[in-house]
Design goal:
- The protein is about 40% helix and about 25% strand.
- By secondary structure, it is α/β, with parallel strands linked by helices.
- The protein has a single domain, classed as Rossmann fold, CATH 3.40.50.
- The strands form two sheets. Strands 2-7-1-8-9 form a five-stranded parallel sheet, with helices on both faces. The chain has a four-stranded mixed sheet with strand order 4-3-6-5.
- Helix 5 runs antiparallel to helix 6.
- The structure holds guanosine-5'-monophosphate.
- The site of guanosine-5'-monophosphate has 14 residues, from strand 5, strand 6 and helix 4.
């Protein structure tokens, strides 16, 4: 494993675009040797989320302490008082296992990681069919209040404008096609024979 060169795969998109489904699918492809970067967040767990699997759920106070200690590779107040960030130790942990890192993070954080590791990172933007469709998907999910959903929708329009700054864009109009495209992009970046 001496010459293992760890890569980073960033998948960013407005919430409800289907990026989490894409990321899960890629994680299931053994040939890619990927591991999910577990972010730290100050938001409350939703539904069946598990601490240390979906996120490291920490208090706002702890989060601010990590910021002070410069422990984050990137962090963001994605929604007011809801902080999210990637700990430097998380990437080190995964690379030390000889695996590549895959991120499911917001557009600002995604672009920051790309900037920090321009050669090692493939930054992919997942585009939803439309803002209206996003609204429908978020409502179907039934995990949040209308107010929270509206907050996510407002943010989505701003996020969509950042798409051209990513290395690649996947249009998630048809999930099966989007999954295939995602596989191709990762395979190419890892220089695997298809
Ligand atoms: P959710 O609350 O739906 O899990 O996530 C809200 C948003 O925060 C999503 O766009 C998600 O991708 C983003 N996010 C999750 N983890 C991180 C992180 O570590 N850093 C940043 N910048 N955004 C994150």
């Amino acid at each position: 494993m001496g010459n293992f060169e760890g890569k980073l795969f960033v998948f960013s998109a407005p919430s409800g675009s289907g990026k989490t489904t894409i990321v899960r699918h890629l994680l299931n492809q053994e040939k890619f040797n990927l591991e999910f970067s577990i972010s730290a967040t100050s938001r409350e767990p939703r539904g069946f989320e598990v601490n240390g699997e979906d996120y490291y759920f920490i208090s706002l106070q702890e989060f601010k302490q990590y910021i002070k200690n410069d422990d984050f590779l990137e962090w963001e107040e994605v929604y007011r008082d809801n902080f999210y960030g990637t700990l430097k130790s998380e990437v080190e942990r995964i690379w030390a296992k000889g695996k590549h890192v895959i991120f499911d993070i917001d557009v600002v954080g995604g672009l920051r990681i790309k900037k920090k590791f321009p050669e090692k990172t493939l930054a992919v933007f997942v585009k939803p069919p439309s803002v209206d469709e996003l609204k429908i998907r978020l409502k179907k999910r039934k995990t949040e209040s209308d107010e929270k959903i509206n907050m996510r929708i407002a943010k989505a329009s701003v996020e969509l404008a950042t798409a051209p700054q990513f290395d690649k864009i996947i249009k998630n109009y048809d999930l099966a096609i989007a999954l295939k495209e995602a596989e191709e992009l990762v395979g190419e970046f890892l220089e695997l024979d298809s």
